Amino acid sequence: MAMLSVTRKQKIKNLILERKSATVTELAQMFDVTDETIRRDLRSLEKEGVLMRSYGGAFVQTGVENLIDYSIRSTVYLEEKKIIAEKCRQIIQNGDVIFLDNSTTTYAIAKAIQDMRLTLITNSLPIINLLSQKENMRLICTGGFFSLKELAFYGSKAQKALEEYYVDKAFFSCRTLSIEQGVTDSNDDLAQIRKTIIRRSKERYLVADYTKFNQASFINICGYDCLNAIFTDRPLSQEWHTSLSKYGCRIYDDPPENKSTTANEKSTK
């Protein structure tokens, strides 16, 4: 007997609230219905305020231990990530050695700088695939264990690889950040990658769209004294600027400029 629509929707709701994200394909297989049926259910649940839909599935933002599939994250807040990427490009110079982590925001940075002459270290498979045919890019992959959920490399081998290098500028993201709790994440393995690169970078830049602010997640990555600057897509409150200024951490929350800017006030820190 086919499951009633109301029963299926409740089960989908419970599953996404527990797992924080799910794709249309896996839900369709799980409930033995068509993709369009699942999309209709997700639209209904979105109208109820239960979740947020993306191109390939749905997710929720709540919960301190909330790791959303890369395939879902890569389809949301695209304009916000593009704005951040354009700002970051302004402080990157030809000849730099940079690190980009496995976030979807740093993937946007990779797209913005793909015409530059750089040495680029990453643990992100999508970034490697994007830049692998670029002769102007000297690509270095960390290696290590591979996460299908994150499309990223992690673990002791990846961390050991990063310890071999020292980079001019590291760009990394996080799950959430708050004034009180600092920069936090939902996945310990990938948080360790970010902690390692903080130690191995001359300049350290956090990239985060507006949805990540004023929340805390499971694992601490760092405090604001470790950062040169934060790049985001929308203006933050004066409280953010005042609180972070005492750590020497600059906030780039204004619209991207056409002219070159610098954010290396703490390059010797």
What would your notes on this structure say?
It is globular and about 60 Å long. The chain has a seven-stranded parallel β-sheet, sandwiched between helices. Mean pLDDT is 88; it is low at 258-269. It has helices spanning 5-19, 24-31, 35-47, 70-73, 78-89, 104-112, 125-131, 156-162, 188-199, 238-245; strands spanning 21-23, 52-53, 57-59, 97-100, 118-122, 137-141, 145-147, 152-154, 167-172, 176-178, 182-185, 201-207, 219-222, 229-231, 250-252. Helix 10 links the parallel strand 14 and strand 15. Helix 5 crosses helix 6 (104-112). The protein is α/β, with parallel strands linked by helices and 269 residues long. It has two domains: 5-60, Winged helix-like DNA-binding domain superfamily/Winged helix DNA-binding domain (Arc Repressor Mutant, subunit A, Orthogonal Bundle); 78-252, 3-Layer(aba) Sandwich (Rossmann fold). Keywords: DNA-binding, Transcription, Transcription regulation. Residues 5-60 form the HTH deoR-type domain. This is Glucitol operon repressor.
